[in-house]
Amino acid sequence: MYISTLRSHIEAMGGQLEIVAKFPEGAVRIANFSSLGPSVIRV
2, 12, 22, 29: most buried by Cβ count inside 10 Å? Predict the structure, then answer.
């Protein structure tokens, strides 16, 4: 399944998809796959 398809299904149910990569140094929330530069937000 594509991330975009999963996002569409979740949004259709009133939700919001968040993807977080967890590392020993901390977590990174990925806000947009098309441009990983400024859209990557450290949490």
Answer: 29
